[in-house]
Each structure stands twice: as C-alpha cells, then as structure tokens.
Amino acid sequence: QGSDSPEIKIKSHKVDEFLNRLILWRAKRFVEDGEESIARFGLDPARIRITLSAKEKKETLLLGSGNEEETIYAKGEEMPGLAMVDEKLLEDLPGSLSDLEDRTLFSFDLDQLRAVTIKLDDETERLEKKEEQWNWAANKDRKEPERWQVNSLLWKLQKLEYLPGASPEKQPSLENIALNLILLTENKDILAT
Predict the structure, then answer these.
(1) Which residue has the higher pLDDT, 19 or 92?
(2) Most buried among 26, 35, 46, 158, by the most CB within 10 A?
(3) Is the C-alpha dihedral spanning 176, 178, 183, 188 positive or negative?
(4) Count of CB atoms within 10 A of residue 49's CB?
(5) The whole model's pTM is what?
(6) Whether the bond into 145 is cis, omega within 30 of 0
(7) Contact 139, 124 (CB under 8 A)
(8) Which residues pair with 71 in a beta bridge?
(9) Residue 3 burial (CB count, 10 A)
(10) Among 51, 177, 191, which residue's Cα sits nearest to residue 117?
(11) Using 50, 70 and 90 to split pLDDT, how confident is the model at 123?
C-alpha cells in the first residue's frame, strides 16, 4: 500500500477460512513436466499469484488461464510440474482486500460484560449481570429479562459490521443518535459504546 492508502484491518477468521479452502484444492489432472512453455498456460506472467509466507519459508502459487474443460492451470512457482484445477475454485478467492476486511463496528468480550446501559431517545435503562442473570438496575418492578434474550442481543451486536466501502470514519454524524449502548465490565470499565 502507498502512504496515501488507508490502513485496512484484516479479520483473521476470514483469512483462515480462505486458507482452509485453499488447502482443500485438488488437481483434476497433471500436465507432463516440460510439456510446453508455461507462458502458453497463462502462467508467465501469472493471472493470479498467491504467496504464503511463514517465518523463513515462502511459497507462491501461480494461477493461469482456463480451458474448455472448465479448469485453470496452476503451478508452484519454484516447483516443477503443472496441474489443472477446477476453475470454480476461483470463487474461493477474495475479490479484493476489502473482502477480508474487519468491518466490525465494535467488539467486546461477553465473559467480561457486567452491565449494559441503553439510552433510547430521552430514556436510559441499565441492565446488570449478577450470577449469570441479567437484572434491571433501577426499575425493580419490571419483569427481569431472560438471560438468553440479553445474550442473543449481545451476540448480534458483536456481529454488526459497517457496509463495504464505508468506514467508521466516513459514517454520518452521531449527534442525533437514537440508540446508545454502553457495555461495562465488573470494574465499571467501558468495553464498548
């Protein structure tokens, strides 16, 4: 990335999912070593290059052109031999870095969470967690929520993401926000807002 490019935070589980799919790729058949020039198969230069680096080792997979058998040519850059793989495997590849981007709006550890303050317009409510049960802090006459209901809401909040192409910095002003959540730990430390 250039110095003018914004830094993109990558979500590790999306990279792990991609690598797991990559590991499962299998050759449909192999082309005899030295059979023809790799340029003919779209590998010099390669249409797609995937480089994996680990400590002192680096491997590059070259993906080339397709053919009438609905396959594409693949080759390890430093390895002899050429393989044909199903072209549908290209659907496993991220289209761009933004496909791997972490777009989580906010994150928190459910195990550390002890209080949730919900401000909706001019009303503020607070839930507190004691011995794995959520209770209303101020309104004792109110029916206590079921634990699964609060946890379900919190799990959904953890999965909230902003839209691709947008970033939290480019979001509209929050001056007239309708809902404000504050998530606190037992020590009243703010986990997320």
Answers:
(1) 19
(2) 46
(3) positive
(4) 12
(5) 0.54
(6) no
(7) no
(8) 86
(9) 4
(10) 191
(11) confident
